[in-house]
Design brief:
The chain is α+β, with helices and mostly antiparallel strands and 539 residues long. The chain has ten helices and 32 strands. The relative contact order is 0.09.
Length: 539
Amino acid sequence: MRRYITLAIWLVFIITLNCFAEDLVWRQISQELTDISAVTLHPDNPDIIYVGSSRGVFKTEDAGQTWRNILFSQGKVNFLLFDRDEGNSIYAATEKGLYFSDDQGRHWRRVFKGKNRLEDNCISIAVLPHQIYLGTRAGLFLSKEIKKDDGRNWYKDPGILADIPVLAIAYRLEGSGSAQIYLANTEGVFRAKAGLWDKIFTAHLSEDDKDKFLLEDTLEDHPDSASCSDLRYISIDPHNSGVLYLSTQKGVYKTEDDGKTWKPLSSQGLLSRDVRFLFVSSKRNLYAATESGIFRFDEEELRWQELSLRLMVKKINGLALDNQDNLYAATDKGLFKANLALLSQDDKYDVLAPYIKGEPGIREVHQAAIEYAEVSPEKIKQWRRQAAKRALLPRLSIDMDYDKNKTISNSIWGTYGTNCNPGKYFVGPDDTTNYRNRNWSISLTWELGDLIWSDDQTNIDVRSRLMVQLRDDILDEVTKIYFERLRIKMELLNLPFQDKNKRCEKELKIQELTAMLDALTGGYFSRQLQLEPNLNPKY
């Protein structure tokens, strides 16, 4: 029973982690740059990358080999946008306003500055052919043309969006030249219709939280614009009209009828349901980022596949995908890059695979322990087969009697005498008789009742119960040691290389648990072990 409980606990652990994962190789390409808060790519040249941080905007033109600071900002860069219609135009939404460059970052000018810190804190932007939408911590602002008026003519949306922190803006251009615009703020999701905003999804935000969030003097206490709302981000499917995705603290929601009805996507495979960012690629794949994980949704299996198993970061702030299937992750440890083209739809495997690669599985270790302790179920079956065959054989009895005797008697003989002539007698010769008797007997007997039941069967039942108990105890011990070793190995692989003391403790513990498995398997585990030269592979 204990063995089954242990296996059940580990089954839940494995399912919770994730049943499938993609073995992507992530490379840090931002060099010494860390704490990347935003990333955007040149639409035609994947070697040109822009990233934002608390130090401003940085640009590389050689796929990350060298970087240079093209915009110094006193506040964090929240969002970067490359205008695809204007090939040289790039926007930087920062905590200190909106910056614009029309020459790919050579020269910048601030085109929006709010009246206070909340208005200054720009979070998202959408650039349409005849309108620019700017989301801030103090609501939505609009402008007609930045190039012509240099950002002097902004006006605040006076409707239901006034003073509500904006989280994200998405839009879909339609054939007639118009656009369908969606906006997510801390109160819900809104759709622009005939110049008015129609709420199509309601967020859960109490009035107390709302008032606390909007107080200017508490701005520094709430750096996350979604800290008081369960909404996180919104993204449209550019290939399907009316399809919209919304990420929340409780998972991802999808609408296929332009917001009339919403259905939650399966959260199976997500390490956390709190999805911070998501987007739909040109190949119609849905990608999502939690605080420390990146996932892709599998439409066929209705589950999320983790892509960040080898990405050792604490916080993921944004994602981007270029035209060569390179996925970029803006994280607290810098900008990371992985090539999705190297993956196959068949490259699915257990999430634990990277940690047990080159090592025997739990079933093989169980079998080795059973064979070493000689408690295999086959042994009990062999006993029963032998007991049944024994009843078919007769009981053979052989008796032998050997008798050896010798009899000796004296003979007395003579003549009768008379008065005149006395008779004579003689003694002998001896009369000897020898006896040598040998007797043999053979008997064969069958107990036909033993074919149905015998005392041997009772003895086997007793011995089998003892053997099963011993086997369960051994397998229970092996299971606990095996998965404890695996857990320690996972902790070791996730420790920073600088933490030498903890790494040493984990390595010693792994060696100890390996020795315990060897003791239970007769050295099988170490013989089968095929560890990499370095227990801590560089990703």
